[in-house]
Amino acid sequence: MTKKILVYAECRDGRLRRVAFEALAAARLLAGEDGEVHAVLAGAGPAEAEALAARGADVVHAADDPALAVYTPEVYAAALSAAFCSLKPQALLLGHTAAGRELAPRLAAAFGAGHIADVTAVQAAHDGGEAVFTRPLYAGKAYERRRFAPGVPWVVTIRPNNMPPASPSEKQGTVQALAFEVPPLYTSVRSIVRRTSGQIDLAEADIVVSGGRGVRSAAGFEPLQQLAEALGGAVGASRAACDAGYCDYALQIGQTGKTVTPQLYIACGISGAIQHLAGMSGSRTIVAINKDPDAPIFGVADYGIVGDLFEVVPLLTSEFRKQRP
Ligand code: FAD
Description:
Largest sheet: 7 strands, parallel
CATH topology of the largest domain: Rossmann fold
Strand order of the largest sheet: 7-11-6-1-4-5-12
Number of strands: 17
Helix content: 25-40%
CATH architecture of the largest domain: 3-Layer(aba) Sandwich
Strand content: 15-25%
Protein name: Electron transfer flavoprotein subunit alpha/FixB family protein
Family: Belongs to the ETF alpha-subunit/FixB family.
Keywords: Electron transport, FAD, Flavoprotein, Transport
Structural class: alpha/beta
Pfam families: ETF, ETF_alpha
Domain Electron transfer flavoprotein alpha/beta-subunit N-terminal: 5-193
Bound molecules: flavin-adenine dinucleotide
Number of helices: 9
CATH superfamily of the largest domain: HUPs
Shape: globular
């Protein structure tokens, strides 16, 4: 039987998120060359459907209903359930985003499926073995490799920024309408408050410049903002900086905040508490700027600068600005 893998192609403001393409690449790996990759697109336009079809989705199931204009778990779960029930795929992959984390367990329960969350690597089945999913444990201090028990479908969430996104494919997939019934709503969205307007999505940013208590005030974040802008990155923060009111909690990185895995993480005035490391230690390259040479952050940093961030950060910004074309 042909192996089918279904992907939830998550959008924000009608545009596909990068994690949708990362999940698509993981789906192709699991499906193999002979298998089928299906994507569910909800409430987005034809350009997004075509983009999925051009990057490895064999069939894009586009759900279009006014109820999808604003995300509500009941409606989005209903659209995904409709696709799942008609296709009966081996697996459903979602991004490990706020929406993905909300939808995945409820869909897994509804389908009687196994669920592995926050996956950072996927190894396809080979030599008669089963596919293996890697996920972090103990705030990133260890990794476990899991497989599903035979005979059940799989629901998997993929941590953003950990796998290469799907690249353009030679074969163009097809797009078809997905019919589903809008269920009764138990929640209603009254308003959407955007706290990080204009900023690149922190969870998907390639470069993050993060500030801690050492930044000392809301105004102290300004040089970090400038450095982030010079690098095309996003600003993040430690919980201490958020607690002190220097910035919004939407920027908090760590155990009780967001998990980020950028190519470059620049920690400014952050000591490196274990709860902060839980949200950023998977970053490809870590640079720490701290005036305390014994700060624990230097233990995980690839490059350390012992110094006052208010001197070092503007110097870095002016150097990076010079590099701009
Ligand atoms: P501090 O530990 O106070 O460090 C400030 C650093 O700035 C120091 O190292 C200092 O040397 C340096 N510094 C000061 N001035 C300058 C300067 N001018 N130039 C350069 N360096 C300077 N924390 C998180 O971040 N995220 C979480 O999600 C999180 N979740 C938590 C969950 C629980 C259950 C608990 C108990 C704690 C959690 N914490 C979290 C808090 C965490 O334990 C630390 O208290 C917090 O990370 C410390 O933040 P910080 O490094 O900014 O502040």
